[in-house]
Design brief:
Order of helices and strands of chain B: HHHHHHHHHHHHHHH
Strand content of chain A: 15-25%
Number of helices of chain A: 10
Strand content of chain B: under 5%
Mean pLDDT of chain B: 88
Number of strands of chain A: 10
Largest sheet of chain A: 6 strands, mixed
CATH topology of one domain in chain B: MetI-like fold
Helix content of chain B: over 70%
Largest interface: A-B, 33 and 24 residues
Helix content of chain A: 40-55%
CATH architecture of one domain in chain B: Orthogonal Bundle
Shape of chain A: globular
Oligomer: heterodimer
Distance between the termini of chain B: 48 Å
Distance between the termini of chain A: 28 Å
Low-confidence stretches of chain A: 1-10
Structural class of chain A: alpha/beta
Strand order of the largest sheet of chain A: 6-7-8-3-9-10
CATH class of one domain in chain B: Mainly Alpha
Low-confidence stretches of chain B: none
Radius of gyration of chain A: 18 Å
CATH superfamily of one domain in chain B: MetI-like
Bound molecules: adenosine-5'-triphosphate, magnesium ion
Largest sheet of chain B: none
Chain lengths: 256, 365
């Protein structure tokens, strides 16, 4: 509980604000009137059935997807069509993908140094020092000269997390980071994420790892058919969901 | 717990099948598998037996290795002194003999750079820069700049000219092809239409037509001050032609890159331009290395067409040598040698491309 109290002390500073965000793919209404405010240091878990728009929601935050209506403010910057603005916001918002998306033609170390060198203009030596620090933190220091294809899925995902951290982001987005992993590798990735949460990083995780949500999240958000159906702190969310759809969803995934 | 101990006795290993049996089995399964296979095998054997011995006899046994045309005529076999006599002109045309070290040095530099590329000694931007600088230095050297005795390009010829045309053609047309492919894949609608039009226009015309246009028609329509020399015009024609094909090859590579690669790079705050240049294009080129090498080989062979617009490349020199009155009657040797040199260059390129493919990180997957 003390952790929760700390985060509510920091809650005066809003880092992400989505107001009445709407998005369509053609005629298909993916996001419907999304309102979401995230405070600095907050850890949010987003869950919901497949196709409910979870990925689309967090991809709007770093503008990998464009929304058509509403306002998104990240770190006091408005997301609009201004490209320069968007590139600099992305430097501050790390993202981890389900499919890792490491660069296969670069070694692990080159993967980590790429953005610091080419997007932050850091000298290579400095970038490598930071990279090695984060690689050690996720436990892959010894593999720095291998290529991504030579690592296991769990190792690749930890590298992907380290790669994002090298840009020194203030917000981290995770889109089902453990869904493509074999069960025995899920824990090694979740451990890294838990450790990251302990450093006070602002995190938005799309995940169905309910144990992670219970132990780490400050808030759990349930989405269905493009809407935020319910949000609550994890104990209340899991133990006494208010909405029928949430109950049904929880009973489905918890029965697995 | 059982008290008796179990001992494990391996049975004796079977002897390896004798090589004789293996050879017989191989023959049976590969050459005489069915009556149809047997028929084909016998037919091909008959054809081979009917002319291979004669060919070998002509090429090597009855051949003359030193002497002059009189001895050749007596021996009756292939006349290799003829090739020896013409060797220099075949390699460098009428380039001055005392300056022959210049193309030689250029050729060695080319082989060295190819080796450095293969051995991963040079990487990234340095590697790309080296491949652009090499032909420039070679051109200055062969032309004779900076106070060196200059050699007019009308005396460039032979294999040297073929390789220069192909090398410059490849080195310039790959980046052009990449730009065209990017324009077609990512460009605005207008850019897309322009790129597609260019590509389809050039791919729809035979190279020989483009060479004629470059050589004959361009001087007719351009004001005299703008007319550049024939060799350069032909080189530009080849580059344009090759770019269109390279563009289509590269486009295939672009399509093979998963969307997640660009997304990962963009989400790190890397600009779209740098994402394309450093994440997308390198991977796309790696994917299409085999057809890319194929285009290089095709372009090298296509250089033999420049003979029609008056340049004396390797094949041009071969033709000239075959008509030399001092060595009349030895055309066959000239064309056998030409075929051998073209084959040797193309096969080396093919092997080199395969080595490059095996070296990349992709092979670990
Ligand atoms: N580029 C696109 N064009 C059209 N429809 C799309 C596109 N991307 C996603 N969709 C649709 O939008 C809906 C929401 O997709 P989204 O990926 O956000 O779902 P999700 O909640 O992340 O699902 P999952 O759990 O399967 O990842 C889906 O119905 C999907 O089919
Ligand atoms: Mg998703």
């Amino acid at each position: 509980m003390s952790v929760k109290l700390q985060s509510s002390i920091a809650a005066d500073e809003t880092v992400i604000e989505m107001t009445n965000v709407n998005k369509w793919y053609g005629d298909f209404h993916v996001l419907k009137d999304i309102n979401l405010t995230v405070a600095k240091g907050e850890r949010i878990v987003i869950c919901g059935p497949s196709g409910s728009g979870k990925s689309t929601l967090i991809r709007c935050i770093n503008h990998l997807e464009e929304h058509q209506e509403g306002k998104i403010v990240v770190n006091d910057a408005h997301l609009d069509k201004n490209l320069k603005n968007i590139t600099s916001i992305r430097r501050d918002v790390g993202m981890v993908f389900q499919q890792f998306n490491l660069f296969p033609h670069m070694t692990i170390l080159e993967n980590l140094c790429f953005a610091p060198v080419w997007a932050r203009n850091l000298p290579r030596g400095e970038a490598e020092a930071t990279a090695l620090k984060y690689l050690d933190r996720v436990g892959i220091g010894a593999q720095k000269d291998k290529y991504p294809g030579q690592l296991s899925g769990g190792q690749q995902q930890r590298v992907a997390i380290a790669r994002s951290l090298c840009m020194n982001p203030s917000i981290m987005l995770f889109d089902e980071p453990t869904s493509a992993l074999d069960p025995e590798m899920i824990k090694e990735v979740l451990d890294v994420m838990i450790e990251l949460a302990d450093t006070g990083m602002t995190m938005l995780c799309v995940t169905h790892e309910m144990s992670f949500a219970r132990s780490v999240a400050d808030r759990v958000i349930f989405m269905d058919e493009g809407e935020i159906v319910e949000e609550n702190e994890p104990h209340a969310f899991f133990d006494s969901p208010k909405v029928d759809r949430t109950q049904k969803f929880l009973s489905q995934i918890l029965s697995h | 717990m059982a008290d008796k101990t179990l001992t494990f006795k391996p049975s004796a290993a079977r002897p390896a099948p004798s090589t004789q049996i293996k050879a017989l089995a191989w023959l049976r399964s590969n050459l005489f598998g069915s009556w149809f296979d047997t028929l084909i095998t016998l037919l091909i054997s008959a054809i081979l037996i009917s002319f291979v011995p004669d060919l070998l006899k002509w090429l090597f046994i009855d051949a003359t290795y030193s002497g002059d045309d009189a001895i050749c005529r007596i021996n009756g076999g292939a006349c290799w002194p003829f090739i020896g006599d013409k060797f220099q002109v075949l390699m460098i045309g009428v380039y001055p003999q005392d300056l022959a070290w210049r193309p030689a040095v250029s050729a060695i530099a080319l082989i060295l750079l190819a080796y450095l590329t293969y051995s991963n000694r040079l990487r990234g931007a340095v590697l790309i820069a080296a491949w652009f600088i090499l032909p420039i230095i070679a051109l200055f050297l062969i032309r004779g700049s900076f106070g060196m005795q200059s050699v007019d390009q009308s005396s460039w010829g032979g294999l040297m000219l073929s390789i220069m045309l192909a090398l410059v053609g490849v080195i310039v047309s790959i980046p052009c092809g990449v730009m065209l492919a990017l324009g077609r894949h990512y460009g605005s609608p207008v850019t897309k239409v322009l790129c597609v039009t260019f590509i389809e226009l050039l791919r729809g015309v035979p190279l020989i037509t483009i060479l004629f246009m470059a050589s004959v028609m361009m001087p007719l329509f351009l004001p005299a001050e703008l007319v550049i020399n024939n060799l350069l015009r032909i080189q530009i024609g080849m580059i344009l032609f090759s770019s269109a094909y390279m563009a289509e090859v590269v486009r295939g590579g672009l399509q093979a890159i998963l969307k997640g690669q660009a997304e990962a790079s963009l989400s790190l705050g890397v600009s779209p331009a740098k994402t394309v240049a450093m994440i997308i294009v390198p991977q796309a080129l790696r994917h299409v290395l085999p057809p890319l090498v194929g285009r290089c080989i095709a372009l090298f062979k296509d250089t033999s067409l420049v003979i029609i617009v008056g340049l004396l490349d390797f094949l041009g020199m071969i033709k000239g040598a075959a008509l030399d009155t001092a060595w009349l009657g030895f055309q066959a040797e000239a064309y056998v040698f030409a075929a051998f040199v073209y084959w040797a260059v193309c096969y080396s390129l093919s092997l080199y491309g395969r080595k490059l493919e095996q070296r990349g990180p992709q092979s670990n997957r």
